[in-house]
Structure formats: structure tokens, C-alpha cells
């Protein structure tokens, strides 16, 4: 399995848009730039980032539509958090997510060996009435509250 993972560069993103007959609008480019910076983000987080930088004029609705469209094209993945908010992920390779359920933050856990073991094990299982199309692994946790004293 390939262990080199990265978000598409702006040039690669422009090519993806062109391949799908989409224009590289300032809004689309600003969304991708913000997603490249944030990694995992909700539409409101991306909107705030774009507005803080002043790179393009966007609305929350337009950002959400761009993110959703890009997820449907496979440019980003998406996940639903426990607070029912959609988060988008620039990393579309196979990996595990660590979800902080207190702060609603996703972190990538890149462990190709563990993913391979889990896929191999589950690949031998049969689920009556279902054809398995993929495996999405998420570990749920919360930050530890240990205080260390000198």
C-alpha cells in the first residue's frame, strides 16, 4: 500500500476541475486552499477561514455546496460528527480517524498495517444480504484530563 498521502496541489485541483468541466472560480480555489490548510473541516470553518483571509467572497451555503460537490467527485471525503455536523476531509486514502467527541475534531491515524489487518479480517466475513463496498474505521475518544505536578 502506498504510504505517501497528500492533498491535491492547486495545480492538480485545477486539473480535476477541468476534467469535470468545472471552472476554477475564486470561490472553488479559496475553498480548496482553506481545506488544504485545515485538513478536516465543516463548511462554517472553511467559510470563516476564507473570510479571515479575504481571498474570495463566499457564503456558507456556497461553501457547503462546493464541499459537497467535491466530495461527490471524490476530491474530498466527508464524515458526520456526533453533533450532526458534516466534516470534510482532504485525505481520500485509506486511513483511520480519531474523533474527539468533546471538541468535534477529527485527526488522521495513518497506520497502513492496521488498516490492512482489519480489511483482511473483515474481508473474510459475510454479512447476509449485503455486499461490502468499503470499510471506514473511526476511533472515538476524548482528551485526557490528567494534570501533572512538579
CATH fold group of the largest domain: Arc Repressor Mutant, subunit A
Strand order of the largest sheet: 1-3-2
CATH classification, class level of the largest domain: Mainly Alpha
Within CATH, the superfamily of the largest domain carries the name Winged helix-like DNA-binding domain superfamily/Winged helix DNA-binding domain
Structural class: alpha+beta
State the major sheet: 3 strands, antiparallel
> Which residue ranges are poorly predicted, with pLDDT under 50 across at least 5 consecutive positions?
none
Number of self-contained structural domains? 2
Explain this structure:
Helices cover 39% and strands 17% of the residues. It has 150 residues and is of the alpha+beta class. The chain has two domains: 7-92, Arc Repressor Mutant, subunit A; 93-150, Ferric-uptake regulator, C-terminal dimerisarion domain (Dna Ligase, domain 1, 2-Layer Sandwich). The chain has a three-stranded antiparallel sheet. A three-stranded mixed sheet has the order 5-4-6, with no helix packed on it. A hairpin with a 4-residue loop joins strand 4 (96-100) and strand 5. The longest helix has 13 residues, at 26-38. It starts with 9 loop residues before the first helix and ends in a 9-residue tail after the last strand. The mean pLDDT is 88.
